[in-house]
Specification:
Length: about 375
């Protein structure tokens, strides 16, 4: 089967790209002829990526783009190359992205199947968006989304909390399929390494992650020996702000910033090294790092938002705190650090069990059946 994956980014640190990459690699290993088309933008950078690349047997083609707003809303032209490839299946990633509209038009011409993967772009009250972005979202959801949503063979949601939003756009029940992002099998079977007295954040170091709240909570917790490690690619201006806060709180000996980790085994070791994983984000779609940490039987503490509430049952497989409230986060960290071993072990075991179905080994079979 010939499969074409469409996504805005195929370079840089991007959650959507990680889904596309892992999905494509597994489909290719199963014998499918997979191509990836994207813009030539590098996520989180002003640099331009190479026009062509290879990922095993998978060819990646990148196209010049024009930004229309924000980092991700852009236009790039790939119709001719898609028509030349003539895929049996087109997978278009990202609701409200212009390449998804082009995807079903191309699919009509060559009589291929076309699937939309939404990637959870919905925000409660649009509170993290600028006024222009809010107006653009309202316009798209009122005049464009309802016209195209049922033209796809299926709409694949990566989280269950998205389903009411998709239905509000007019999507028919029979069109909606839940297939979440997956994590590699190694997260479930790689040998566990020793824990340290450490709290860990693993992910993109950007304002949406609200890391000020975590640093402020560290100052408030009772255990003054436990350290915090913040791991991931950083937006420089935001990193400077965080380091300034660390200095103001006199936490220089307890807060450490580390660069991104790309090697899978090293990533697993880093997660294993922590006692607690904290995700203090303003919003989340489907938080990959949270699922990865839960698969390693970590105690996870996350801010209450649509994405984390979809995964964590407070007090059972992790803990939730009020978004933006460093005092509440400190209370939750203190609760775990002062808890008896049996209670924490139960939370750890429940965490691992609750994410077993996120293994790519299972998810890729669901995708193949759908195609």
């Amino acid at each position: 089967m010939k499969i074409l994956e469409l996504t805005n980014f195929s370079a840089g640190i991007c959650g959507v790209w990680q889904r596309v990459k892992q999905e494509s690699e597994l489909l290719s290993k199963k014998g499918h002829n997979v191509m990836i088309f994207s813009s030539n933008a590098i996520k989180g950078s002003d640099e331009i990526s190479a026009k062509e690349d290879k990922l095993g047997k998978i060819r990646i083609r990148r196209f010049p783009f024009k930004k229309l707003g924000g980092e991700s809303f852009m236009i790039w032209n790939f119709e001719k190359e898609a028509l030349d490839f003539r895929p049996d299946v087109i997978i278009a990633h990202g609701y409200r992205q212009l390449h998804t509209t082009k995807a079903f038009k191309i699919a009509r011409k060559i009589k291929s199947k076309v699937f939309l993967v939404t990637h959870a772009p919905f925000v409660e009250g649009n509170f993290t968006r600028t006024l222009f972005a809010k107006l653009a979202v309202i316009f798209y959801d009122r005049f464009i989304g309802p016209k195209i949503i049922n033209k796809f063979d299926k709409v694949i949601v990566i989280t269950k909390w998205e389903i009411p939003y998709i239905k509000k756009l007019g999507a028919k029940d029979k069109k909606i399929v839940y297939i979440p992002n997956g994590i590699p099998e190694e997260f479930f079977n790689y040998k566990k390494s020793k824990e340290e007295e450490k709290i860990l954040f693993f992910g993109r170091i950007s304002p949406i992650k609200n890391l000020e709240v975590l640093i402020e909570a560290l100052y408030l917790i009772k255990n003054k020996k436990i350290i915090l490690e913040v791991v991931g690619p950083a937006e420089e201006e935001y990193l400077r702000l965080l380091k300034k806060l660390v200095n103001e709180e006199k936490l220089e000996k307890r807060v450490f910033f580390s660069g991104p980790i790309y090697d899978l085994k090293e990533k697993i070791k880093k997660i294993d090294s922590a006692k607690i994983f904290v995700l203090p984000s303003k919003r989340e779609g489907m938080p990959q790092a949270l699922i990865e940490s839960m698969s390693r039987e970590k105690i996870v503490i996350a801010s209450k938002n649509l994405g984390t509430r979809d995964l964590i049952e407070d007090g059972k497989n992790g803990l939730l705190f009020e978004r933006g409230d460093s005092k509440d986060l400190a209370r939750k960290i203190n609760y775990i650090l002062e808890n008896g071993k049996s209670t924490n072990d139960e939370i750890r075991e429940n965490a691992e069990k609750s994410v077993e179905n996120f293994s790519w080994k299972k998810i890729i079979l669901d995708l193949e059946r759908l195609f």
